[in-house]
Write a structure and sequence with these properties.
- The termini are far apart.
- By secondary structure, the protein is an alpha/beta fold.
- The longest helix is centred in the first third of the chain and has 21 residues, at 84-104.
- It has a single domain (14-313), classed as NAD(P)-binding Rossmann-like Domain (Rossmann fold, 3-Layer(aba) Sandwich), CATH 3.40.50.
- The strands form three sheets. The protein has a six-stranded parallel sheet, sandwiched between helices. Strands 6, 8, 10 and 12 form a four-stranded mixed sheet that branches. A two-stranded parallel ribbon has the order 7-11.
- Helix content is 42%, strand content 16%.
- β1 (14-18), α1 and β2 form a beta-alpha-beta unit.
- Bound molecules: guanosine-5'-diphosphate-beta-L-fucopyranose.
- Guanosine-5'-diphosphate-beta-L-fucopyranose binds at residues 76-78, 80, 115-117, 140-141, 144, 173, 187-188, 191-192, 209-211, 215, 217, 252, 275-278, 282.
Length: 320
């Protein structure tokens, strides 16, 4: 079924970007700064998003009309497996506080950011939105997945019971400015970029890549996601979540060699098979957003070059 286009205007609206310091939130901020709207941000020291009174008081004061909910506790496969409580509790609290308060202060539109890891591990690939909750979750990121699914369901519940215009967007694996470059807790693009760069500078003879190198991942430059979020805020109004993928699928092995090439590292690459692979494949079916008229602009090489440039420009800042 083709979704109907709508024409919701963001012009002059008070728009709260929740999580503006993160990779996704900061990309949405860059995008919205070019539009004519009143951007709202809050700092962690002033509002604990896990606290219901903090969130509600802030929203009563600021009266946002639109919310981009991009705040979350995120991380790569290692962080997901080792901090289950943070990933489940923090993410549910953040989403539930904001979604519930959005209804209380009459927010016109809320855009909730989920993740491709919400889909069952054995669902048919590429993952269609309709495969949600049709099977068992991937064990390595089940806590994060459950929290994100709860957020989607809460948006749907508010829509059904209170007619709230809350939509859910499922992005694929992302990379871009403000990523978490921690080698242990970050996602694969950030961890590898950092590792290859350090190895180049220190002239280390080999770099370790986790797992077999066989898993396939779809990667997207975060500015494309920000563009899609704004597009969907204007053009999408449906209870069903909507996927945002790039179609740029690559094996971890080839991805590692691409990063090695971009960084200019000359040493060897070693695959550590004792580390987890996670899901074998995670490709999104993005037919729905394509039919609405949106497509990504960055190819993988272009995005990764910008990513490395940002990393080099900000490396001193990252060390602090
Ligand atoms: O990005 P990543 O941690 O997350 O790992 P997922 C992707 C793949 O890269 C896995 C391999 O097969 C890893 O084994 N890999 C190789 C590495 N070297 C490294 C490395 O140095 N660091 C990391 N992190 N991986 C995440 C979920 O799954 O996807 C999150 O855990 C979220 O919850 C995110 O949904 C989008 O793609 O496996």
């Amino acid at each position: 079924m083709v979704e109907k286009r709508i024409n919701y205007s963001l012009k002059n609206k008070r728009i709260w970007i929740v999580g503006h310091n993160g990779m996704v939130g900061s990309a949405i901020l860059r995008k919205l700064k070019r539009l004519n709207c009143q951007i709202q941000i809050c700092q962690r020291k002033d509002v604990d998003l896990r606290s219901q009174p903090d969130v509600l008081n802030w929203m009563k004061k600021k009266k946002p009309e639109v919310i981009f909910l991009a705040a979350a506790k995120v991380g790569g496969i290692f962080a997901n497996m080792n901090y289950p409580q943070d990933f489940l509790y923090d993410n549910i609290m953040i989403s539930f506080n904001i979604i519930n308060s959005a209804k209380l202060v009459d927010v016109e539109k809320l855009i909730y950011l989920g993740s491709s890891c919400i889909y069952p591990r054995k669902a048919k690939q590429p993952f269609c939105e309709s495969s949600l909750l049709t099977g068992e979750l991937e064990s390595t990121n089940q806590w994060y997945s459950l929290a994100k699914i709860s957020g989607i369901k809460l948006c749907q519940a508010f829509r059904i019971q209170h007619n709230c215009n809350f939509i859910s967007i499922m992005p694929t694996n992302l990379f871009g400015p403000m990523d978490n470059f921690d080698e242990k807790n970050g996602h694969v693009p950030a961890a590898l970029l950092n590792r290859f760069h350090k190895a180049k500078i220190k002239e280390v003879p080999s770099v370790e890549v986790w797992g077999s190198g066989n898993p396939l991942r779809e990667f997207m430059y975060v500015d494309d996601l920000a563009d899609a979020c704004v597009f969907l805020a204007k053009n999408y109004d449906s209870i069903e979540p909507i996927n945002v993928g790039s179609g740029l699928e690559i094996s971890i092995k080839n991805f590692a060699f691409l990063i090695k090439q971009i960084v200019g590292y000359k040493g060897k690459v070693i695959f550590d098979k004792s580390k987890p692979d996670g899901p074998k494949r995670k490709l999104l079916d993005s037919t729905k957003i394509k039919k609405l008229g949106w497509s990504p602009k960055y190819n993988l090489k272009k995005g990764l070059k910008l990513y490395y440039k940002w990393y080099l420009d900000n490396i001193t800042l990252l060390r602090k």
